[in-house]
């Protein structure tokens, strides 16, 4: 372990890989943002993983990769699946709330860290607003401390970076945090520009809604065949 690695422990057996972290975080995010379309179809999960806005790093995961990732998360009891009577599309939901005994404010903090990397408490408060409304930075810090104090810990508080005033926080679901590597990696959060990212996100959401409507129509038509 290098001097830049922050030790931490999530699961004594194995930590989550980047794809698992992204898929799990998307399920947690969309549960709050698009409640009418939750649980989510495979295609909707894939679109959420690959959107350009509010993601660091930006990823491009295929449907097969997302499917395999969901299966692994189901084996670890972090994701559940369900299918409606007569419907061909299987839906997926996260189980972080049950698995780790988390209330929504903690789920929101963890999801934002999983989706956007290292952040200060102030950044977390601002970016988690649609998932949970923290009235102050102190409230966000309280939720962070809860996640730090869990055994094993889910979040770690890092030392202040040179030239900065506030400490940053990171999630430990993937194991040790290599601060130097993460700081050196180019940020994908603003890829394509703000307007392009927003349009990309809207297109992904519309595609997911169309797929849901197709599945519902197919199930309805089967009743009369």
What does this structure look like?
This protein has helices at residues 18-33, 42-50, 63-75, 96-99, 104-116, 121-127, 137-149, 179-184, 194-222; strands at residues 5-6, 40-41, 79-82, 91-94, 119-120, 155-157, 168-171, 177-178. By secondary structure, it is mainly α. It has one domain: Arc Repressor Mutant, subunit A. The strands form three sheets. Strands 2-4-3 form a three-stranded antiparallel β-sheet. A hairpin with an 8-residue loop joins strand 3 and strand 4. Helix 1 crosses helix 3 (63-75), helix 2 (42-50) packs antiparallel against helix 9 and helix 5 (104-116) crosses helix 7 (137-149). The model is unreliable at 1-5 and 188-194 (pLDDT under 50).
């Amino acid at each position: 372990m290098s001097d830049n690695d922050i030790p931490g422990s999530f699961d004594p057996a194995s930590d989550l890989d980047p794809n698992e972290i992204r898929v799990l975080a998307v399920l947690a995010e969309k549960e709050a943002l698009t409640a009418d379309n939750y649980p989510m179809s495979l295609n909707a999960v894939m679109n959420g993983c690959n959107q350009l806005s509010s993601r660091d790093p930006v990823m491009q995961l295929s449907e097969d990769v997302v499917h395999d990732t969901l299966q692994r998360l189901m084996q670890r009891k972090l994701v559940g699946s369900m299918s409606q009577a007569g419907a061909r599309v299987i839906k997926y939901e996260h189980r972080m709330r049950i698995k780790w005994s988390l209330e929504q404010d903690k789920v929101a903090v963890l999801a934002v860290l999983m989706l956007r990397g290292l952040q200060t408490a102030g950044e977390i408060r601002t970016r988690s607003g649609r998932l949970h409304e923290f009235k102050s930075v102190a409230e966000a810090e309280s939720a962070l401390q809860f996640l730090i104090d869990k055994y094993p810990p889910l979040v770690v508080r890092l030392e202040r970076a040179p030239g900065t005033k506030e400490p940053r926080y990171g999630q430990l679901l993937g194991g040790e945090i290599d601060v130097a590597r993460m700081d050196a990696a180019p940020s994908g959060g603003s890829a394509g520009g703000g307007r392009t990212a927003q349009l990309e996100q809207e297109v992904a959401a519309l595609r997911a809604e169309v797929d849901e409507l197709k599945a519902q129509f197919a199930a309805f038509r089967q009743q009369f065949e």
